[in-house]
Design goal:
Structural class: alpha/beta
Helix content: 40-55%
Number of strands: 5
Radius of gyration: 15 Å
Length: about 180
């Protein structure tokens, strides 16, 4: 008997560790991985590179591209890293990929700034962090997923997330 693999979105603001955690989760589960940043239209990347925050009009086509990528993976499972800052963004992703489980990475602002200032080759400027923090809506008890401390050791964090998934890939751990 085969069970379907989970579809997971690792979410949080820039610098929270979405890519690192997402890749490790995908490897541990043996499923496809996508970095949501790679699915941004060129115009979005140009705006962020110029230090201009995205608005909802910019984000909707990007969210649809992520939703389409997740939907195409169906029962095969997948992990995507994307900010998914607002409830309505997560609702849009869940409409495309029912059962999508969110792992929200919680990291203090000072640590986010430190991480963003030490990484190289990324288009997101640290000066845009506050615009993301301003619109971030944390997961609620009604949303399927959990919030985790994004400052923890990545391997321990991934083990804890995997422990919270039942054999059919449904998240069962409370936040």
């Amino acid at each position: 008997m085969t069970t379907s693999q989970p579809r997971i979105a690792v979410m949080g603001v820039s610098g929270s560790g979405k890519t690192t955690v997402g890749k490790r989760l995908a490897t541990a589960l043996g499923v496809a991985y996508a970095d949501g940043d790679d699915l941004h239209p060129a115009a979005n990347i140009a705006k962020m590179t110029a230090g201009i925050p995205l608005d909802d009009t910019d984000r909707l086509p990007w969210l649809d591209a992520i939703g389409n990528w997740l939907s195409a993976r169906g029962g095969h499972g997948a992990v995507v890293s994307c900010s998914a800052l607002k409830h309505e963004y997560r609702d849009r992703l869940r409409a495309a990929a029912p059962g999508l489980y969110f792992v929200a990475l919680d990291v203090p602002r000072a640590e986010l700034i430190r991480r963003m200032n030490t990484r190289t080759g990324h288009f997101m400027h640290a000066r845009l962090l506050d615009s993301q923090l301003a619109i971030l809506q944390p997961l609620t008890v009604r949303e399927y997923g959990r919030t985790v401390d994004g400052t923890r050791d990545v391997d321990a964090l991934v083990r804890d997330v995997l422990t919270g998934l039942d054999p059919a890939g449904a998240g069962t751990q409370p936040r």
